[in-house]
Task: structure prediction
Amino acid sequence: MTQDSFQVIHINFMSAEVDPVYFPQLEVIGDIANSMWQIKERIMKQEKWDFSYFMEVRKHVMSHLAEGADDPRYPVYPQRLVADVRKAMPSDGIIALDNGVYKIWFARNYLAHQSNTVLLDNSLATMGAGLPSAMGAKIVHPERKVMAICGDGGFMMNSQELETAVRLKMNLVVMILRDNAYGMIKWKQANMNLPEFGLDYGDPDFVKYAQSYGAQGHRVEETEQLIPLLQQCFDTPGVHLVEVPVDYSENDRILNHEIKERSLKI
Result:
């Protein structure tokens, strides 16, 4: 958002961190509940509200989110990945996201059916949090299907917790999205028109890695395989690691440019 495009009011306990996301013209710092109540008390009553613009925005957003949901290409594209995960998860199933560029896609495209079924650390954005978050959710809700969704980079920062999950005899699915890179930083570098630097790396054989801890390892070899494989893992007791090769080649075009261009046309 450019500094002069919209008037932005920042309401929070702390001042805004000025970065490329938004630039507030007004900041309301303090207790959020009290701030909202005082703002409400000062707003003049409106006899009739016209929501037509917002409904039009919603229509365009939902149309955009549906694009690519059936993309057959392999490695799996993120739009198809999110759509298939949604189909494989029951309404009360819990996904725990690690931190990587895939969390942007899940935050946009994954429609939660119930509260507290999408665990996403989007504040401190700690890498390596996905697996332990999923383990905690499974301990609290042992009767529900729980899946950790991690990038290869974030997973390897805390992968030893597989041993804990196996030792505790958890029924848990851990999805590893493999692009052999730090995808979030690649996306941000592209948005800042910076050259890619120091972001590509090699991965272990995740199937054998899982097996070395006593978990079951799986690898998606074609896009159509994802849903039945996830269902198989959820129906089979134990810890299951599912490696999914992903293609993020369209991240820059869609997330950095297309969304902005389409928004300006509404």
User: Anything to note?
Assistant: The chain is about 40% helix and 15% strand. The radius of gyration is 21 Å. The longest strand covers residues 172-178.
